[in-house]
TrEMBL record:
GO terms for molecular function: fucose:proton symporter activity. It holds the Pfam family MFS_1. This is L-fucose:H+ symporter permease. One of its GO terms (cellular component) is plasma membrane. Coiled coil: none annotated. The keyword Transmembrane applies. Its main location: membrane. InterPro entries: Lfuc_symporter_FucP, MFS, MFS_dom, MFS_trans_sf, MFS_TsgA-like. The keyword Transport applies. Keywords: Cell membrane, Membrane, Transmembrane, Transmembrane helix, Transport. Residues 34-441 form the Major facilitator superfamily (MFS) profile domain.
Protein backbone atom coordinates (compact mmCIF):
# COMPACT_ATOMS: atom_id res chain seq x y z
CA UNK A 1 0.00 0.00 0.00
CA UNK A 2 2.82 2.39 0.80
CA UNK A 3 4.20 2.03 -2.75
CA UNK A 4 0.86 3.22 -4.19
CA UNK A 5 0.75 6.46 -2.19
CA UNK A 6 3.01 8.54 -4.51
CA UNK A 7 0.86 7.51 -7.49
CA UNK A 8 -2.30 8.60 -5.69
CA UNK A 9 -0.75 12.01 -4.89
CA UNK A 10 0.07 12.59 -8.56
CA UNK A 11 -3.37 11.53 -9.84
CA UNK A 12 -5.77 14.17 -11.13
CA UNK A 13 -8.94 14.89 -9.16
CA UNK A 14 -11.49 17.48 -10.22
CA UNK A 15 -13.23 17.28 -6.82
CA UNK A 16 -10.78 17.46 -3.91
CA UNK A 17 -11.17 16.01 -0.42
CA UNK A 18 -11.24 18.46 2.50
CA UNK A 19 -11.15 16.30 5.63
CA UNK A 20 -8.53 14.56 7.79
CA UNK A 21 -8.44 10.85 8.64
CA UNK A 22 -8.27 9.70 12.26
CA UNK A 23 -6.25 6.75 13.53
CA UNK A 24 -9.25 4.40 13.22
CA UNK A 25 -9.94 5.34 9.59
CA UNK A 26 -12.86 7.72 10.25
CA UNK A 27 -12.77 11.37 9.14
CA UNK A 28 -12.75 14.38 11.46
CA UNK A 29 -15.72 15.83 9.58
CA UNK A 30 -18.08 14.82 6.78
CA UNK A 31 -16.87 15.67 3.23
CA UNK A 32 -20.36 16.42 1.92
CA UNK A 33 -19.71 16.18 -1.82
CA UNK A 34 -18.03 12.78 -1.47
CA UNK A 35 -20.66 11.59 1.00
CA UNK A 36 -23.58 12.56 -1.27
CA UNK A 37 -21.89 11.06 -4.33
CA UNK A 38 -21.34 7.83 -2.39
CA UNK A 39 -24.96 7.89 -1.18
CA UNK A 40 -26.13 8.13 -4.80
CA UNK A 41 -24.83 4.59 -5.28
CA UNK A 42 -27.58 3.29 -3.01
CA UNK A 43 -30.39 4.05 -5.50
CA UNK A 44 -28.44 2.19 -8.18
CA UNK A 45 -28.62 -1.19 -6.50
CA UNK A 46 -32.14 -0.37 -5.24
CA UNK A 47 -33.34 0.01 -8.84
CA UNK A 48 -31.94 -3.41 -9.74
CA UNK A 49 -33.51 -5.01 -6.66
CA UNK A 50 -36.96 -3.49 -7.27
CA UNK A 51 -36.88 -4.50 -10.93
CA UNK A 52 -36.60 -8.08 -9.66
CA UNK A 53 -40.08 -7.69 -8.16
CA UNK A 54 -41.33 -6.79 -11.65
CA UNK A 55 -39.41 -9.63 -13.29
CA UNK A 56 -40.81 -12.21 -10.86
CA UNK A 57 -44.36 -11.31 -11.92
CA UNK A 58 -43.48 -11.21 -15.63
CA UNK A 59 -41.50 -14.47 -15.65
CA UNK A 60 -44.10 -16.35 -13.58
CA UNK A 61 -46.67 -15.94 -16.35
CA UNK A 62 -44.46 -16.11 -19.46
CA UNK A 63 -42.56 -19.22 -18.30
CA UNK A 64 -45.58 -20.70 -16.40
CA UNK A 65 -43.77 -20.89 -13.06
CA UNK A 66 -44.92 -21.71 -9.53
CA UNK A 67 -44.46 -19.13 -6.77
CA UNK A 68 -41.48 -21.19 -5.59
CA UNK A 69 -39.81 -21.29 -9.03
CA UNK A 70 -40.40 -17.58 -9.70
CA UNK A 71 -38.59 -16.75 -6.45
CA UNK A 72 -35.36 -18.09 -8.00
CA UNK A 73 -34.99 -14.59 -9.47
CA UNK A 74 -34.13 -13.47 -5.94
CA UNK A 75 -31.96 -16.55 -5.38
CA UNK A 76 -29.83 -15.70 -8.42
CA UNK A 77 -29.64 -12.07 -7.35
CA UNK A 78 -28.72 -12.54 -3.70
CA UNK A 79 -26.64 -15.62 -4.43
CA UNK A 80 -24.34 -13.35 -6.45
CA UNK A 81 -24.02 -11.05 -3.45
CA UNK A 82 -23.13 -13.96 -1.21
CA UNK A 83 -20.44 -15.44 -3.42
CA UNK A 84 -18.69 -12.19 -4.35
CA UNK A 85 -18.76 -10.19 -1.10
CA UNK A 86 -15.59 -11.82 0.27
CA UNK A 87 -13.55 -11.36 -2.95
CA UNK A 88 -14.80 -7.75 -2.98
CA UNK A 89 -13.45 -7.23 0.56
CA UNK A 90 -10.07 -8.53 -0.60
CA UNK A 91 -10.07 -5.96 -3.40
CA UNK A 92 -10.77 -3.25 -0.79
CA UNK A 93 -7.89 -4.45 1.39
CA UNK A 94 -5.43 -4.60 -1.52
CA UNK A 95 -6.53 -1.38 -3.24
CA UNK A 96 -9.14 1.08 -1.93
CA UNK A 97 -12.86 1.60 -1.43
CA UNK A 98 -12.93 3.93 -4.44
CA UNK A 99 -11.28 1.39 -6.77
CA UNK A 100 -13.69 -1.33 -5.58
CA UNK A 101 -16.65 0.94 -6.31
CA UNK A 102 -15.36 1.59 -9.83
CA UNK A 103 -15.01 -2.16 -10.39
CA UNK A 104 -18.57 -2.63 -9.13
CA UNK A 105 -19.95 0.02 -11.48
CA UNK A 106 -18.17 -1.59 -14.44
CA UNK A 107 -19.43 -5.10 -13.59
CA UNK A 108 -22.95 -3.77 -13.01
CA UNK A 109 -22.85 -2.24 -16.50
CA UNK A 110 -21.72 -5.55 -18.01
CA UNK A 111 -24.50 -7.40 -16.16
CA UNK A 112 -27.15 -5.00 -17.50
CA UNK A 113 -25.77 -5.51 -21.01
CA UNK A 114 -26.40 -9.26 -20.69
CA UNK A 115 -30.14 -8.59 -20.71
CA UNK A 116 -29.86 -7.87 -24.43
CA UNK A 117 -28.81 -11.42 -25.46
CA UNK A 118 -31.04 -12.87 -22.70
CA UNK A 119 -34.13 -11.22 -24.14
CA UNK A 120 -33.38 -12.84 -27.53
CA UNK A 121 -32.53 -16.32 -26.22
CA UNK A 122 -35.72 -16.09 -24.12
CA UNK A 123 -35.12 -18.87 -21.59
CA UNK A 124 -35.60 -18.51 -17.85
CA UNK A 125 -32.11 -19.84 -17.05
CA UNK A 126 -30.38 -17.24 -19.26
CA UNK A 127 -32.24 -14.43 -17.53
CA UNK A 128 -31.12 -15.84 -14.18
CA UNK A 129 -27.51 -15.73 -15.44
CA UNK A 130 -27.92 -12.04 -16.37
CA UNK A 131 -29.43 -11.26 -12.95
CA UNK A 132 -26.58 -13.13 -11.25
CA UNK A 133 -24.05 -11.09 -13.27
CA UNK A 134 -25.69 -7.83 -12.16
CA UNK A 135 -25.50 -9.03 -8.55
CA UNK A 136 -21.74 -9.55 -8.88
CA UNK A 137 -21.28 -5.87 -9.65
CA UNK A 138 -23.70 -4.86 -6.91
CA UNK A 139 -21.84 -6.99 -4.39
CA UNK A 140 -18.68 -4.97 -5.05
CA UNK A 141 -20.67 -1.74 -4.75
CA UNK A 142 -22.54 -2.59 -1.57
CA UNK A 143 -19.61 -4.25 0.20
CA UNK A 144 -17.64 -1.03 -0.30
CA UNK A 145 -20.37 1.60 0.02
CA UNK A 146 -22.07 0.47 3.24
CA UNK A 147 -18.84 0.38 5.23
CA UNK A 148 -17.44 3.45 3.47
CA UNK A 149 -20.51 5.52 4.33
CA UNK A 150 -20.04 4.79 8.03
CA UNK A 151 -16.38 5.92 7.76
CA UNK A 152 -16.91 9.23 5.93
CA UNK A 153 -17.15 11.32 9.07
CA UNK A 154 -16.83 11.15 12.88
CA UNK A 155 -17.20 7.73 14.50
CA UNK A 156 -19.97 8.79 16.89
CA UNK A 157 -22.37 9.53 14.00
CA UNK A 158 -21.52 6.44 11.92
CA UNK A 159 -24.93 4.74 12.42
CA UNK A 160 -26.87 7.90 11.61
CA UNK A 161 -24.67 8.52 8.57
CA UNK A 162 -25.36 5.06 7.14
CA UNK A 163 -29.07 5.56 7.80
CA UNK A 164 -28.91 8.81 5.83
CA UNK A 165 -27.19 7.05 2.91
CA UNK A 166 -29.81 4.30 3.09
CA UNK A 167 -32.50 6.99 2.82
CA UNK A 168 -31.45 7.36 -0.84
CA UNK A 169 -32.35 3.70 -1.43
CA UNK A 170 -36.12 4.22 -1.93
CA UNK A 171 -35.45 6.77 -4.68
CA UNK A 172 -33.86 4.02 -6.77
CA UNK A 173 -36.49 1.49 -5.71
CA UNK A 174 -39.34 3.73 -6.88
CA UNK A 175 -37.47 4.48 -10.11
CA UNK A 176 -37.00 0.77 -10.77
CA UNK A 177 -40.68 0.01 -10.20
CA UNK A 178 -41.77 2.89 -12.43
CA UNK A 179 -39.43 1.73 -15.20
CA UNK A 180 -40.89 -1.75 -14.92
CA UNK A 181 -44.47 -0.51 -14.64
CA UNK A 182 -44.36 1.52 -17.85
CA UNK A 183 -41.68 -0.25 -19.91
CA UNK A 184 -42.26 -3.93 -19.04
CA UNK A 185 -45.89 -4.31 -17.98
CA UNK A 186 -48.52 -3.74 -20.66
CA UNK A 187 -51.95 -2.11 -20.47
CA UNK A 188 -55.29 -3.91 -20.66
CA UNK A 189 -55.96 -7.31 -19.19
CA UNK A 190 -53.38 -9.03 -17.03
CA UNK A 191 -50.63 -10.93 -18.83
CA UNK A 192 -52.09 -14.19 -17.55
CA UNK A 193 -55.46 -13.35 -19.14
CA UNK A 194 -53.81 -12.30 -22.41
CA UNK A 195 -51.88 -15.58 -22.67
CA UNK A 196 -54.71 -17.82 -21.49
CA UNK A 197 -56.22 -18.26 -24.95
CA UNK A 198 -52.90 -18.64 -26.78
CA UNK A 199 -51.33 -21.99 -27.67
CA UNK A 200 -48.35 -23.32 -29.61
CA UNK A 201 -46.40 -20.90 -31.78
CA UNK A 202 -48.70 -17.97 -31.03
CA UNK A 203 -48.09 -18.31 -27.29
CA UNK A 204 -44.32 -18.59 -27.78
CA UNK A 205 -44.19 -15.51 -30.03
CA UNK A 206 -46.29 -13.43 -27.66
CA UNK A 207 -44.14 -14.53 -24.72
CA UNK A 208 -40.98 -13.54 -26.60
CA UNK A 209 -42.47 -10.09 -27.28
CA UNK A 210 -43.14 -9.66 -23.57
CA UNK A 211 -39.59 -10.74 -22.72
CA UNK A 212 -38.16 -8.18 -25.16
CA UNK A 213 -39.67 -5.48 -22.96
CA UNK A 214 -37.54 -6.57 -20.00
CA UNK A 215 -34.37 -5.07 -21.48
CA UNK A 216 -35.78 -1.54 -21.84
CA UNK A 217 -35.19 -0.36 -18.23
CA UNK A 218 -31.58 -1.54 -18.35
CA UNK A 219 -30.80 0.81 -21.25
CA UNK A 220 -31.47 3.78 -18.95
CA UNK A 221 -29.51 2.23 -16.08
CA UNK A 222 -26.43 1.71 -18.27
CA UNK A 223 -26.33 5.43 -19.14
CA UNK A 224 -26.52 6.41 -15.45
CA UNK A 225 -23.77 3.92 -14.56
CA UNK A 226 -21.40 5.42 -17.12
CA UNK A 227 -21.98 8.92 -15.70
CA UNK A 228 -21.33 7.66 -12.15
CA UNK A 229 -18.08 5.97 -13.22
CA UNK A 230 -16.82 9.26 -14.65
CA UNK A 231 -17.77 11.22 -11.50
CA UNK A 232 -16.09 8.72 -9.17
CA UNK A 233 -12.95 8.67 -11.30
CA UNK A 234 -12.69 12.48 -11.05
CA UNK A 235 -13.36 12.70 -7.30
CA UNK A 236 -10.76 12.34 -4.54
CA UNK A 237 -11.79 9.94 -1.77
CA UNK A 238 -9.97 9.03 1.48
CA UNK A 239 -8.45 5.60 2.07
CA UNK A 240 -10.44 5.34 5.32
CA UNK A 241 -8.23 2.58 6.64
CA UNK A 242 -6.91 2.41 10.22
CA UNK A 243 -3.34 3.59 10.71
CA UNK A 244 -1.58 0.49 11.99
CA UNK A 245 1.78 -1.21 11.60
CA UNK A 246 2.68 -3.14 8.46
CA UNK A 247 2.28 -6.48 10.24
CA UNK A 248 -1.19 -5.57 11.47
CA UNK A 249 -2.29 -4.63 7.98
CA UNK A 250 -1.47 -8.13 6.77
CA UNK A 251 -4.14 -9.86 8.89
CA UNK A 252 -5.02 -13.09 7.11
CA UNK A 253 -8.56 -14.16 6.24
CA UNK A 254 -8.24 -17.17 8.53
CA UNK A 255 -7.24 -14.88 11.42
CA UNK A 256 -10.17 -12.57 10.73
CA UNK A 257 -12.66 -15.44 10.52
CA UNK A 258 -11.35 -16.90 13.79
CA UNK A 259 -11.72 -13.49 15.45
CA UNK A 260 -15.26 -12.99 14.14
CA UNK A 261 -16.34 -16.55 15.01
CA UNK A 262 -15.62 -15.79 18.68
CA UNK A 263 -17.51 -12.49 18.54
CA UNK A 264 -21.01 -13.48 19.72
CA UNK A 265 -22.51 -10.03 19.18
CA UNK A 266 -21.21 -10.00 15.61
CA UNK A 267 -22.77 -13.42 14.95
CA UNK A 268 -26.11 -12.27 16.39
CA UNK A 269 -26.01 -9.28 14.04
CA UNK A 270 -25.27 -11.51 11.05
CA UNK A 271 -28.18 -13.82 11.87
CA UNK A 272 -30.56 -10.91 12.33
CA UNK A 273 -29.46 -9.26 9.09
CA UNK A 274 -30.01 -12.59 7.28
CA UNK A 275 -33.60 -12.74 8.55
CA UNK A 276 -34.29 -9.05 7.95
CA UNK A 277 -33.12 -8.90 4.34
CA UNK A 278 -34.94 -12.17 3.63
CA UNK A 279 -38.16 -10.70 5.03
CA UNK A 280 -37.76 -7.44 3.12
CA UNK A 281 -37.16 -9.29 -0.13
CA UNK A 282 -40.06 -11.68 0.45
CA UNK A 283 -42.57 -8.93 1.24
CA UNK A 284 -41.56 -6.93 -1.82
CA UNK A 285 -41.42 -10.02 -4.05
CA UNK A 286 -45.02 -11.00 -3.30
CA UNK A 287 -46.82 -7.68 -2.81
CA UNK A 288 -47.90 -7.56 -6.46
CA UNK A 289 -48.99 -11.22 -6.33
CA UNK A 290 -50.92 -10.56 -3.10
CA UNK A 291 -52.78 -7.64 -4.69
CA UNK A 292 -53.69 -9.69 -7.77
CA UNK A 293 -54.81 -12.64 -5.66
CA UNK A 294 -57.10 -10.43 -3.54
CA UNK A 295 -58.46 -8.54 -6.56
CA UNK A 296 -58.33 -10.68 -9.75
CA UNK A 297 -59.75 -7.78 -11.79
CA UNK A 298 -56.52 -5.75 -11.71
CA UNK A 299 -53.54 -6.29 -14.02
CA UNK A 300 -49.79 -6.28 -13.34
CA UNK A 301 -49.36 -2.60 -14.21
CA UNK A 302 -52.08 -1.54 -11.78
CA UNK A 303 -50.82 -3.86 -9.03
CA UNK A 304 -47.28 -2.52 -9.38
CA UNK A 305 -48.58 0.85 -8.18
CA UNK A 306 -48.70 -0.66 -4.70
CA UNK A 307 -44.95 -1.22 -4.94
CA UNK A 308 -44.46 2.45 -5.76
CA UNK A 309 -46.38 3.31 -2.60
CA UNK A 310 -44.35 0.71 -0.69
CA UNK A 311 -41.05 2.35 -1.58
CA UNK A 312 -42.40 5.82 -0.84
CA UNK A 313 -43.42 4.46 2.56
CA UNK A 314 -39.94 2.95 2.91
CA UNK A 315 -38.43 6.39 2.26
CA UNK A 316 -40.74 8.08 4.77
CA UNK A 317 -40.01 5.35 7.31
CA UNK A 318 -36.29 6.02 6.96
CA UNK A 319 -36.79 9.76 7.35
CA UNK A 320 -38.89 9.21 10.47
CA UNK A 321 -36.32 6.76 11.87
CA UNK A 322 -33.49 9.24 11.24
CA UNK A 323 -35.45 11.94 13.10
CA UNK A 324 -36.24 9.64 16.03
CA UNK A 325 -32.61 8.53 16.32
CA UNK A 326 -31.70 12.09 17.21
CA UNK A 327 -34.03 11.79 20.21
CA UNK A 328 -33.70 8.14 21.29
CA UNK A 329 -31.24 5.30 20.68
CA UNK A 330 -31.21 3.48 17.30
CA UNK A 331 -31.92 0.19 19.11
CA UNK A 332 -35.11 1.58 20.64
CA UNK A 333 -36.25 2.93 17.27
CA UNK A 334 -35.58 -0.48 15.73
CA UNK A 335 -37.55 -2.20 18.51
CA UNK A 336 -40.62 0.06 18.11
CA UNK A 337 -40.67 -0.29 14.32
CA UNK A 338 -40.29 -4.08 14.58
CA UNK A 339 -43.22 -4.44 16.99
CA UNK A 340 -45.48 -2.42 14.70
CA UNK A 341 -44.21 -4.34 11.65
CA UNK A 342 -45.03 -7.69 13.23
CA UNK A 343 -48.59 -6.55 14.08
CA UNK A 344 -49.02 -5.37 10.47
CA UNK A 345 -47.93 -8.76 9.13
CA UNK A 346 -50.52 -10.46 11.36
CA UNK A 347 -53.16 -8.26 9.75
CA UNK A 348 -51.98 -9.25 6.26
CA UNK A 349 -52.22 -12.93 7.16
CA UNK A 350 -55.74 -12.93 8.55
CA UNK A 351 -57.62 -10.16 6.73
CA UNK A 352 -58.35 -11.33 3.20
CA UNK A 353 -59.33 -8.14 1.43
CA UNK A 354 -57.50 -5.29 -0.29
CA UNK A 355 -56.85 -3.50 2.99
CA UNK A 356 -54.16 -6.15 3.57
CA UNK A 357 -52.22 -4.75 0.60
CA UNK A 358 -52.15 -1.34 2.26
CA UNK A 359 -50.65 -3.00 5.31
CA UNK A 360 -47.81 -4.35 3.12
CA UNK A 361 -47.17 -0.68 2.31
CA UNK A 362 -47.12 0.09 6.03
CA UNK A 363 -44.72 -2.81 6.63
CA UNK A 364 -42.37 -1.31 4.01
CA UNK A 365 -42.36 1.94 5.97
CA UNK A 366 -41.54 0.02 9.12
CA UNK A 367 -38.48 -1.52 7.41
CA UNK A 368 -36.99 2.00 7.57
CA UNK A 369 -34.31 1.69 10.28
CA UNK A 370 -33.56 -2.02 9.97
CA UNK A 371 -30.73 -2.63 7.50
CA UNK A 372 -28.54 0.35 8.28
CA UNK A 373 -28.96 0.08 12.05
CA UNK A 374 -28.23 -3.65 12.19
CA UNK A 375 -25.30 -3.23 9.77
CA UNK A 376 -23.65 -0.39 11.65
CA UNK A 377 -24.18 -1.93 15.09
CA UNK A 378 -22.80 -5.25 13.89
CA UNK A 379 -19.75 -3.57 12.34
CA UNK A 380 -19.16 -1.65 15.59
CA UNK A 381 -18.74 -4.97 17.45
CA UNK A 382 -15.49 -5.41 15.50
CA UNK A 383 -13.14 -3.57 17.84
CA UNK A 384 -9.98 -4.79 16.06
CA UNK A 385 -10.16 -2.54 12.99
CA UNK A 386 -7.78 -4.75 10.98
CA UNK A 387 -10.83 -6.89 10.29
CA UNK A 388 -13.25 -4.10 9.28
CA UNK A 389 -13.25 -4.71 5.49
CA UNK A 390 -13.75 -8.45 5.81
CA UNK A 391 -16.37 -8.02 8.54
CA UNK A 392 -18.28 -5.61 6.29
CA UNK A 393 -18.16 -8.18 3.49
CA UNK A 394 -19.54 -10.89 5.76
CA UNK A 395 -22.42 -8.64 6.79
CA UNK A 396 -23.16 -8.10 3.10
CA UNK A 397 -23.00 -11.88 2.64
CA UNK A 398 -25.93 -12.15 5.06
CA UNK A 399 -27.95 -10.77 2.16
CA UNK A 400 -28.17 -14.43 1.13
CA UNK A 401 -31.30 -14.33 3.29
CA UNK A 402 -32.89 -12.66 0.27
CA UNK A 403 -32.24 -15.85 -1.69
CA UNK A 404 -33.65 -18.17 0.98
CA UNK A 405 -36.64 -16.54 2.70
CA UNK A 406 -38.62 -15.73 -0.51
CA UNK A 407 -38.23 -19.37 -1.60
CA UNK A 408 -39.66 -20.51 1.72
CA UNK A 409 -42.51 -18.02 1.47
CA UNK A 410 -43.17 -19.12 -2.11
CA UNK A 411 -43.32 -22.75 -0.96
CA UNK A 412 -45.78 -21.86 1.82
CA UNK A 413 -47.94 -20.00 -0.71
CA UNK A 414 -47.94 -23.05 -3.03
CA UNK A 415 -48.62 -25.53 -0.19
CA UNK A 416 -51.43 -23.53 1.45
CA UNK A 417 -52.84 -22.05 -1.74
CA UNK A 418 -52.91 -18.70 0.08
CA UNK A 419 -50.60 -15.81 -0.63
CA UNK A 420 -51.91 -14.10 2.51
CA UNK A 421 -50.96 -16.93 4.88
CA UNK A 422 -47.49 -17.19 3.35
CA UNK A 423 -46.61 -13.91 5.12
CA UNK A 424 -46.19 -15.94 8.32
CA UNK A 425 -42.62 -16.53 7.08
CA UNK A 426 -41.94 -12.78 7.11
CA UNK A 427 -43.57 -12.51 10.54
CA UNK A 428 -41.07 -14.98 12.01
CA UNK A 429 -38.25 -12.86 10.57
CA UNK A 430 -39.56 -9.64 12.14
CA UNK A 431 -39.85 -11.38 15.51
CA UNK A 432 -36.12 -12.17 15.26
CA UNK A 433 -35.44 -8.44 14.73
CA UNK A 434 -37.55 -7.67 17.83
CA UNK A 435 -35.44 -10.06 19.92
CA UNK A 436 -32.20 -8.58 18.54
CA UNK A 437 -33.21 -4.97 19.25
CA UNK A 438 -34.50 -5.86 22.72
CA UNK A 439 -31.14 -7.44 23.58
CA UNK A 440 -29.30 -4.38 22.27
CA UNK A 441 -31.44 -2.14 24.46
CA UNK A 442 -30.56 -4.20 27.51
CA UNK A 443 -26.82 -3.93 26.79
CA UNK A 444 -27.07 -0.19 26.28
CA UNK A 445 -29.08 0.40 29.49
Amino acid sequence: MSQQEPKQKKSFHLFKLKATETEEGYLDRIPWFQFILLSLLFPLWAAAASLNDILITQFKTVFTLSNFASAFVQSAFYGGYFLIAMPASNVIKKTSYKFTILVGLLLYTIGCSLFFPASHVATYSIFLVAIFAIAIGLSFLETAANTYSSLLGPKETSTLRLNISQTFYPIGAVSGILLGKYLIFSEGASLEEQMKGLTGTARIQFGEEMLQKTLLPYKFIIIILIVMMILFALTEFPKSKPKTTTNEKDAKISETLAYLAKNKEFLKGIGTQFMYIGMQTAVWSFTIRLAMSLDPSINERSASTYMVFSFIAFFLGKMLANFLMKKISPSKVLFIFSILGSLSLLYIMFVHNMSAVYFTILVSGLFGPCWATIYSQTLDTVTDKRHTATAGAIIVMSIIGGAVIPLIQGLVADWTGSMSLSFVVSLVCFIVVIIYSKNRMKKEA
